Structure prediction request, 617 residues.
Amino acid sequence: MMQIYNTQTRRKEEFKPIEPGKVRIYCCGPTVYNYFHIGNARPFIVFDTLRRYLEHKGYEVKYVQNFTDIDDKMIRRANEEGITVKELGDRFIKEYYTDADALGIERATVNPRATEHIADIIALIEKLIDKGLAYACDNGDVYYNTQAFPGYGKLCGQNLEDLESGARIDVDPNKRHPMDFAVWKAQKPGEPAWESPWGMGRPGWHIECSAMSMKYLGETLDIHCGGKDLVFPHHENEIAQSEGATGKPFVHYWMHNGFINVDNQKMSKSLGNGVDPLEIIDQYGADALRFSLVMGVSPGNDMRFSTDKVESARNFANKIWNASRFVLMNMGDEAETLEGKTLCAADQWILTRLNDTIREVSAHFEDYDLGLAAQKIYDFAWSEFCDWYIELAKVSLNGEGRAATLAVLRHVLICLLKMLHPFMPFITDEVYRYIPGTEGTIMLSDWPKVDDAMNFPQEAHEMEGVMDVIRAVRNLRAEMNVSVGRRAHLIVRPKAGWEHAMAGAGEYFGRLAWASGMQLLAQDEEAPAKTVSAVSEAAELFIPLGDLVDVAKETARLTKERDSVQRDIERGEAKLNNPGFTGKAPAQLVEQEREKLAVARDKLAKLNARIEDLANM
Prediction:
């Protein structure tokens, strides 16, 4: 069952929707006086990801996000530009949709505008006045009476007195208490206004969200979300207004995301350090930006914006795209299914790892840890599916196991795309539409489920042993500077219990470890002379040296490298034996020299050992 961190209770709670199968979410939207930047985009992306996951799980989500289209900043900018506040709002609402659509943010069920709900706002204020929770002033302002609402401060965890002592408050003789806030503001010269029982005026900021959320979602919401800078005063005041008016709980789960920082400062319009999302999208793509703002960080924590992270996410998107092209190219129009197929060891391994990944990713989503969910998908997709399985699959794609491997490739790709979709909606939907046997958009598909019939723990363990041998051979070749593609005979002495796995791995060793052939040794059988060796979890490995290198050329190369390292050691020793250096240089610099000398000595020992090994061949 999904666990959500509730800001109000300061703990994770099991998510139980008010109405089974349906979720009511209200997300605070933008004040439409300017373009939004990446810092503004983070909550839209985070909660869009949550929404998409809930929809994949089968929930009917009603998602309401408002536009604040009347406030002091809007009035100020409209006056500066010589246009009406409505014209300004219309312009930046259009710009919002342009940016949000480019980011793949699903359109809200309703996007209410404050100026189109004046009657609802006035009705709510009248109810508050009737209950003694708001009061009208002689000048036409209306204030909320914070002293009349006993629960004021419960969201931010402070009482009224603590809030007063820590706040910077403008002195207003019309207020009964310094923490009282305006729900209706009397008209000032040059401001737009609407008729009300208290004269011409306009709504305060907080009241609009109470009125509009309850109009479209009912008096009690499942989830209310926004940036953590809205906890106080905005969301605190929403609670006071809504619960004061209805006498019912306003929200069951309060969810807040952290800030994006640039140079250790919160990204904000007022600081002028905002980054235009469209510029980043043009350079890296929308999926990359979305993924970079989610992966590796909990939604509630602050994060540092980095184009390096966006570039890494773009590389990941490219990896997914290239892997998808390979699968689709081999699949053609065939919609192979797993039913009745005889699976090879690599197939069984990837299906087992897919089940593990679905289980782990689902658990992180259910725990609302989007950062860890994204990381798990990344690790599985990049390393296990793309780097390992696709290469292993090329063996059976050219043999009798082709149909089974095509079915596995198709199944794994579909499940991977579904898990990735809440984070990367564009590439996942694009690829999904091309997969034979799929219908409609991935957005309407079910979340992948663990299939116990496709769990092969023993076979997966054996395949891990084969892969460990391949890694060991690759490392050995890298240490000896052997060119990629140069083939060598591989001699394998399996450890006890690994005989079966090693005996069936010849084709994998040939393709992924560049083995020209494989020979199995018994436990008591001696390895041939003049070989280099390595040890893995599953076996001892031997490769004839002559298959890997030209001994004379390799000896000359290593000798040249050894002489260079020896000179570095002599220079380092001379520096550290010089009292003028050790006595005057900063301690940190002296320590760095000592560390460099230790590394060089270790490297020299290894080079001498390699040269000696070659001399004995």
